[in-house]
């Protein structure tokens, strides 16, 4: 849905996991002229906004003061009146302790049209993510969403502790971790069961989510001991006793690992997404990028007996160069196609080509063996590859009597690390290397092996060539993939984590 001019959208961003934003929130963020946002919003969601959008932060930044509500109201009215499309982005749901209702009233009285985009609220999502259903048949058939913001020691407190003490169901408290001791004492004093199960969930749905389960009486001390800080949800109710049976985030194979991905930005996303799905936190620190060579120069593989494709990157570039010669997949009709491994074979399949030769291990020596194993001879062979590739394959084919032409499709160049990437890298417990060039360029960027710091992270290598590069720098691979591709690397990481 496109954001309309002169309209203010009161949008909820959900509890923190970017995957829990609504489709509508994403669409509006991507089209609005102005974004006015709080501090607690999903990581990376501002990457979605238009490059020319005006982005205004009104949350507390680094402990500083937040913008007063009156000023926020004025901002919304001003931009709405000026005819802009405005997204007012909040954490969780905009109408649950989000002051969305107040802003809507101001907009209505200023005559500005608004829409509300509801969202997943943290009071339900954080418990769910911890393995606590807020209702459960036979245990809890009602939920109260309560603010813990009111100070129970002040006479003007708005919370009705006597009412909450007899509420027949789960209590979910937003805010107020600091006042938790006073709140739980007041609830017990008002008659709520001291031994009722209770839980604290910090950063629910986000990396670093923490859960503490105790009783109403012991929760504040248990939370303090575990170092629970805001943002956290407090849950009081028998359903908290289900957490030991239902917790699920912690059971993911890579839970608790912080893994750095060093491959090129264009490819990092797919590896990161798979690691995240397995429960890891990932930091992307691209150390290399690929630079196509001889773009637009026609390439005609017809008449070749054997075409060897030695990387996934090469597939698109090969077809681009063939297109420049007015050719498509049919040009490979009579050609034996050899792919370095299953990943490259899959990329070829997407182009309508089923590779004839695919070794299981994605390494040049295995490809040489597989070609020899085909039992045929190839008078004319073509290899398409990166500039800096090894020459094992070229030499082996020449030795087998082929006339070999090598076409360089791209080169790998260093990508500089930003300051924030450097900081993020230092927090990783594991660094993945998907090629020798990622090793070289990363070490280059951090000033050699010493740049890895005193508490050296685990180094994960995709295969022997990459491992050899680590060793050439005096480092060891703590783990090496058995299958030398992304699936193999992920398998090595999960079995390492299971140790
Ligand atoms: N409108 C928001 C709530 C805003 S009040 C919503 O619907 O979720 C801010 C409070 O929300 C925090 O103090 C904390 O109690 C809670 N909160 C927000 N995000 C949270 C998260 N990811 N995990 C736990 N609590 C969270």
UniProtKB/TrEMBL annotation:
The keyword Methyltransferase applies. Residues 7-220 form the Tetrapyrrole methylase domain. Pfam families: HEM4, TP_methylase. Its EC number is 2.1.1.107. Keywords: Methyltransferase, Porphyrin biosynthesis, S-adenosyl-L-methionine, Transferase. GO terms for biological process: methylation; siroheme biosynthetic process. Residues 271-491 form the Tetrapyrrole biosynthesis uroporphyrinogen III synthase domain. The keyword Methyltransferase applies. One of its GO terms (molecular function) is uroporphyrinogen-III synthase activity. NCBIfam families: cobA_cysG_Cterm, PRK06136.1. PANTHER family: S-ADENOSYL-L-METHIONINE-DEPENDENT UROPORPHYRINOGEN III METHYLTRANSFERASE, CHLOROPLASTIC, SIROHEME SYNTHASE-RELATED. This is uroporphyrinogen-III C-methyltransferase. The lineage of its organism: unclassified sequences, metagenomes, ecological metagenomes.
């Amino acid at each position: 849905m496109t954001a309309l001019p002169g309209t203010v959208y009161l949008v909820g961003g959900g509890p923190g996991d970017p995957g829990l934003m609504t489709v509508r929130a994403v669409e509006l963020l991507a089209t609005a002229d102005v974004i006015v946002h709080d501090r607690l919003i999903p990581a990376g969601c501002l990457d979605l906004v238009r490059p020319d959008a005006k982005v205004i932060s009104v949350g507390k930044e680094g402990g500083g003061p937040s913008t007063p509500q009156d000023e926020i109201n004025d901002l919304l009215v001003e931009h709405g009146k000026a005819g802009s499309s405005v997204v007012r982005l909040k954490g969780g749901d905009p109408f649950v302790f989000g002051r969305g209702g107040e802003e809507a009233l101001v907009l209505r009285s200023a005559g500005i049209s608004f829409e509300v985009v509801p969202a997943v609220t943290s009071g339900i999502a954080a418990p769910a993510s911890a393995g606590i259903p807020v209702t459960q048949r036979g245990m809890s058939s009602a939920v109260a969403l309560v603010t813990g913001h009111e100070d129970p020691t002040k006479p003007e407190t708005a919370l009705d502790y006597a009412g909450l003490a007899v509420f027949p169901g789960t209590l979910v408290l937003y805010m107020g971790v600091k006042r938790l001791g006073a709140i739980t004492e007041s609830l017990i004093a008002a008659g709520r069961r001291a031994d009722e199960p209770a839980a604290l969930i910090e950063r629910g749905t986000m990396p670093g989510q923490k859960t503490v389960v105790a009783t109403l009486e012991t929760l504040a001390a248990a939370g303090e001991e575990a170092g629970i800080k805001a943002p956290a949800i407090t849950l009081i109710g028998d359903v908290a006793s289900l957490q030991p049976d239902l917790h699920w985030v912690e059971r993911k194979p890579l839970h608790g690992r912080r893994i750095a991905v060093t491959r090129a930005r264009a490819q990092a996303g797919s590896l990161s997404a798979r690691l995240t799905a397995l429960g890891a936190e990932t930091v992307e620190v691209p150390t290399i990028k690929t630079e196509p060579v001889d773009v637009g120069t026609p390439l005609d593989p017809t008449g070749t007996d054997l075409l060897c494709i030695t990387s996934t990157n090469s597939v698109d570039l090969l077809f681009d160069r063939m297109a420049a010669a007015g050719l498509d997949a049919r040009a490979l009709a009579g050609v034996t196609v050899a792919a370095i491994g299953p990943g490259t074979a899959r990329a070829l399949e997407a182009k309508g080509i089923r590779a004839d030769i695919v070794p299981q291990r994605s390494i040049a020596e295995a490809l040489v063996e597989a070609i020899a194993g085909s039992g045929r001879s190839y008078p004319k062979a073509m290899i398409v590859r990166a500039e800096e590739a090894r020459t094992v394959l070229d030499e082996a084919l020449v030795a087998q009597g082929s006339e070999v032409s090598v076409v360089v499709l791209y080169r790998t160049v260093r990508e500089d690390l930003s300051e924030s990437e450097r900081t993020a890298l230092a927090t990783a417990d594991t660094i993945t290397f998907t090629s020798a060039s990622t090793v070289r360029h990363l070490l280059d960027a951090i000033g050699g092996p010493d740049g890895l710091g005193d508490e050296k992270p685990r180094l994960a290598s995709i295969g022997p060539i990459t491992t050899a590069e680590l060793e050439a720098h005096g480092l060891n691979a703590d783990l090496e993939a058995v299958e030398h591709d992304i699936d193999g690397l992920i398998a090595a990481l999960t079995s390492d984590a299971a140790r």
